[in-house]
User: Fold these one by one.
Assistant:
Number 1:
Amino acid sequence: MTDIGSGAAGPVEETAAVPAAAAAPATLWRDPEFLKFWSGEAISQVGAQVTTLALPLTAVLTLDASSSQVGFVNAASYAPFLMVTLLVGVWVDRVRRRPLMIMANVGRALLVSAVPLLAVLDLLRIEHVYIAALLVGTLTVVFDVSYQSYLPTLVGKEHLVEGNSKLQGTSSLAQIGGPGLAGLLIGWVTAPYALLINGISYLVSVLTLLAVRRVEPEPVPQQERTGIRTSIAEGIRIIWDSAHLRACALQSGLYNLCWMSLQTVFVLYAARTLGISPGGIGLLLGTGAVGSLVGSMLAQWLKLKIGLGRAILAALLLCCLAPAAIPAAPADNGVLSLALFVAAFGLIGAGGTMANIHIISLRQSMTPDQLLGRMNAGYRFVSWGTLPLGALLGGWLGDLIGLRETLFVTAALFLTAVLVVLKSPVWRLKEFPPQIVAEPRKADAK
């Protein structure tokens, strides 16, 4: 199979990326430039978690928002992942990535700070919260696509697994501690002022990103100018034309479809059938983040022990078999049931994070730098695009056949993600394959 992209040929890109990562030491713990970037990304992740809780609570507690209005706030937060991700990918491939991350965090700081300021002036309306949620979500897309595309030029191919492990670890910590921190801040200073403090955290992140001194290469200029649609198509094409990337994207979409179905139905099952309190449900789901943290620590070790492809397959087996323990548990909230729920969500988190670390590293190592932004955006469009479909599927099946029965069906569907990888060359990989050779495409017809 021929892997096709656009822009300059592969060797030009490899040469261009060397100066950025050449000075990196043997371990990233001793690389001050990565540590600056890592700390800035970690602060941004915590800030995003605080915003996720504080923004809708501002609508509830300050504006007395209805359920439907809170739903609109949450929908506005996630809509950009489907609306603008592919366009952002084109943008990220045409400019340097670190300035985009800095710009995104400055914008998020201003937006989340504007909400409490409007509240103090008694000018805050629910429409302002909708707009803030939509724009913050858009800037989150910009930051996320940029940092995944920036990492290879910062640390080099040899440190991708270590770098992604550290980034996934801080993401897991943010998911564990972010909502709790948001709750403490809201209880201490109320929801609007928690957003103001959160705005300051984004500015601290900006300072750490500004402190990175390793030179980021200029983006490889296109030999012929292409339009937006062609550029987006090239990002999708590089995924489709590669058996490795295509399998990874498909398994990710299937996995996320099943995960959202599981999460949607489990909340109803735990509350209505088992009588578990909302706080208890939150704690059970939170064990997945704890598992994710453990998985981020074990990912590098697993790859060294059994190789890249088998590490991906083993991690997927772990997180795709674990959901079966949830409907198999006794239909009560006894000790055995709770223990099985904790084990299941913990294993889902650990396996999912290990698979994610290796797959992200595989994507980054295979893709030419001039296509990284569009590849990451196209991949995220496929994998995140199935989340609302999973929620609809779980809700529909829950009404049709029952909640526990739907959990059994969903647990079985998880195995489709494993089958996709087994039918692909991914699981046979010992190490990262060669970088895809990008071939130039013709300009748009006039």
Note: The chain has two domains: 7-219, 227-435.
Number 2:
Amino acid sequence: MRTAIENQDIICLSTVDWDPIWTRKQQIISRLPLSNRILYVEPPISLLSPFKNKACWKKWPLWWKGLRQWRENIYLYSPPVIAPFGNIYRQVNRLNQAWLAPFIRRAARRLNFREPLLWTYLPNSADIVGRLGEKLVIYDCVDEHSAYSGFRPETVWDMEKSLLEKADIVFTTAEGLYEKRKPFCREIHLIPNAADVDHFQKSVLETTPLAPELKGLPHPVIGFVGVIQDWIDLDLIADLAAARPGWSFVLVGPAGPGVDLKRLHSLPNVHLLGRRNKEVLPSYFKGFDICLNAFRLNRLTATVSPLKFYEYLASGKPVVSVPLPAVEPFADVVEIARTPAEFLKKIEQALTLETPERRKLRLKRAQENSWEQRVAEIMEKIAPKL
């Protein structure tokens, strides 16, 4: 029986641009066999997006550039702008998807695509299914999209249910996502997130240099790596930093639009370094004593499979995390805390109890959760349908 995806044309509708921040989408797509040809469609911006986030202005003219080749078999495409409020009013989304479809078809025709696989991460793509000449629809559900701020939950869930019913196969990253969507699917599988293990394990190598910004910082160094979005518990981090002024708190990653960093900026032992290329991240992990997995506990994070958690494991560093359902199965290798007082206690405990054996155990668990393993599992489920 076929267990790999070979010689296929694939249209991937993603929720994130290809660069600069890599997520599950890029990790999976980039690991598919080279015999496949992939059109990676970046998310369109709305007419209002640049007024909410100035960084979106640079995306405004991108669609005029057409296809951009990233690798011999992967092409990137940024579609034209769309009308706002598509995640609030279903009819607006229908118009948006009808508008986008011919542009995406044209890009696929330029690559001579024939009967592509439609691999989507967007609930609103329910209204583009059937318009791209696809022979198979794959939906990879990575978040509770209806819980996003600024979206109308009823509209987003209505679109997602429609997509679930149309999809030939569905994947989810967390148990909560799986259970909610299972009644609406023909076939569904739970495939959690993972890490680029080989890359992040470089942090344990003697040949990996220490990031220059970390040299001379007082220890312990408590580190966070990732995009700082509104679901990251910045109050928790600020409380910890205020309670332990002799510790260094280092946050590596860009802040999302609207995220308030004023309190963190006011604390002298908090170091906000901004975005760093993924290639150099092991140099930052190398200087951490503890990795902090600090999410707000809400409806969105209850169903999240945090990428950064798996990357923390792969770095070999001790991890202290909030009690996310996706993290609790790793309680044998990480510390779990709920309140600032518990976090302080668990951090001190992790520092005191750290041994080479505990690090080896974390690295072993990370190896069991690599992207190579996840992609093999996903292909094994899809291949028999081709």
Note: The first helix runs from residue 24 to 29.
Number 3:
Amino acid sequence: MYALDLEVIFGRHWLFCATEAEIPEPGDFVTVEVGSTSVIIVRDDDEGVSALLNVCRHRGSRIVDDPCGAVGNFVCPYHQWTYRTDGSLIFAESSQPGFDRSAFGLRRVPVRSLAGLVFVCLSDEPPVDFDEVAGVLEPYLAPYRLAGLKVAHQTDLMEAGNWKLVMENNRECLHCDAGHPELTSAYFPFIQYSPEDVTPRLRALYERFLQAESRLASAGAAAGIPSGSHRELDGRASGYMIRHFPLDGDGASFGMGGKPISRKLVGEITDPAFGDMSLHFQPNSWFHFCSDHAVVFRALPVAPDRTLVRTTWLVHADAVEGVDYDVDTLTEVWKATNDEDRGFVERQQRGVSDPGYLPGPYATVEDDVESFVTWYIQRMQYHFGGGRDHLGLVPRAAAQ
């Protein structure tokens, strides 16, 4: 099943891998490992974003070992074949007569930047609905000007659980009230709640949430943010959800009690109490955009029971550490939350591996978990010829 997940889910869908803020200058690069595949994401000399397989076209050596860095050209350490940042081959010593360098550039990987968020697909035939999804999402994200932010901090957390458990845990907040005291000092735990789902214990908090939601709607309208949310987490290849979500307390950011955590507001945002623009993208990412920073997450499997979760905090390009923000305050809430989620996932991995495990029904507020599982099953059905994609296209294997 792990090999099938790598082939079908991570090999044929758009994966969030990095932000443009991580590669601000020509020659800046990051590497991404997906199973045995290594991809270089690089700002090329024309200041575009390229994605290249990290495999020399001569004898197959890995070209780059570092997770990030900056280069003028890529030089294979084995025999010094040399490539421009767009992947084109410019030097190959002792080549045979008639050798055509233009035919031996680094293999390119489909890559798209969505408002500064970089997605790659390892298939030569990526899902065609990305443009449609991007058209929905870009008006929500444009005011944050994410491509012009800078990386303030980044952490990697290895979770001893299958990647699907990591994503299921992320896709619900039923556990938040008891499990994330730092997060819920700012974050209302009402993802996919309807009024009838609110228990008596949560009624006062829910009323405060509704009031904050009304205030945020006015702030969003003033900033030109589209009204309402969009939720298509299943039923299409590039499943997503976006919602402008209020924050508790000061309503400004993910500081304790909703307090600001950077003095400089990002992009075109002028109202500090601008809540949280929350984005989920299948199969491996989630995002939170606030008035003063953004925090982005990606999950990539490294073994059947190991998942690497990377968290990146972005701030205004001119924000100065120690003056406008400090890293400890910036990262306090999500570092604690990530560690708590790691514990939940690892406990669940041990439990579902127990031969005595029998699953129970979903709660009424676990819709997004069910949507993730439904999306996964749909994509597997499509792979095996048992379904259609959202455009009504049958898989190639079924058509044949």
Note: The two ends are 25 Å apart (CA to CA).
Number 4:
Amino acid sequence: MKPALPAKLLQSLAPWRNAPAWHIAYSGGLDSTVLLHLLVDLAKTQPLPPLRAIHVHHGLQAAADAWPAHCQAVCDAAGVALRVMRVQVLPGASLERAARDARYQAFAEAISPGELLLTGQHRDDQAETLLFRLLRGAGVRGLAGMPAQRPLGAGGLARPLLDVSRTELEAYARDHQLTWIEDPSNSDPRFSRNYLRHQLFPLLTARWPQAVNALARTAGHLAEAQGLLDELAQLDVQAANQPSGLSWLALPSLSIAPLRTLSDARQRNALRYWLAPLTRLPDSEHWVGWSALRDAKADAQPIWRLADGQLHRCNDRIWWLPTQWSEFSDSPLSWSRPQNPLQLPGNGQLHFSGCAPDGPLSIGYRLGGEIMEVPGRGRRDLKRLLNESAVPGFVRGRLPLLYQGSRLLAVANLARASTGQGDDWQLHWTPPTCDQGLS
């Protein structure tokens, strides 16, 4: 056994020594078997968090049905609790990607707040990732490879073996007479990573013996470059993150004017950073939607449709609307007890401050052509009142309207669109929370 390997592992995991638990992503293969053995051995002499293991069963091949039993036997012998999670891999263009997505979704669900998931990817995997993404035309973030750590669900994910070669892991496994599962699919050249591993890398290393180390080192350089780009993006997003004037509208938004002062490349960098937690991003060839949205006429309301929602421009501001934004019921509702808050199906909650007007009251939504009496101003068209309050077009059909019989009394949250809001009462609308998919 090389003493440097457990010491290197312990050093890389130092920031999480006080985590509530460490979960090992245990496939039963070489990498995760070595990681499990290393951690169990270290726990005999070091005060580590409780160790647990998670085996994800994809059900993609008949041989995999025997793997949970093998993993259970190894974990029982090591004194580590094992959780077997069965997932359904959705069909798609890439079986590899679909399986990975299902696996990490299961991991995210399995770990509790503050806990850490440990995976066994190593230096060779990092080199393969860089080359694979390079051939797909990835940008700096993609070419930075797999991060050594990142958030996952309510906890975090760490890859403590990224600086360890596959050769070192194989030597450790032989020295300790470990047994592991050989996945038959790992030799199938139809999968891109297997082709790189078994066909291309032997040619590269025959000519350049240090190719794996060099590629992994390049990924590290690119990760550092991406960190600098992120720092620049933080400054640019902060400059554009000005108040919207609609504090009740809890949707991510940015002022477009500060973004226009930046170069095109810097604009894209800032938007990638801002949109990354919200949606999957397009590749570099499909950013024409941003240019069209940015350069549209001032009175236009352009939309840029992305994978998980839409980016709208309104009143010289861009707003992010997730896909779920349109999923609500616009059927009228009676409000028989206005002293209590009213839950709107898929559209948050209404409540009064002050004494509510006399009933019967009901809630409806805009159909077009509504007229209301505004004290001191006479009859006013609702569209004009909404324009005066600079309400974005995408939210107008969602604003609750308060009726007394057939008479329109008020528009929620808009004091200038009311027959009597002021000292007596006000109608407040709280849109759905972030957990409901609206920010």
Note: Residues 172 and 251 are 51 Å apart (CA to CA).
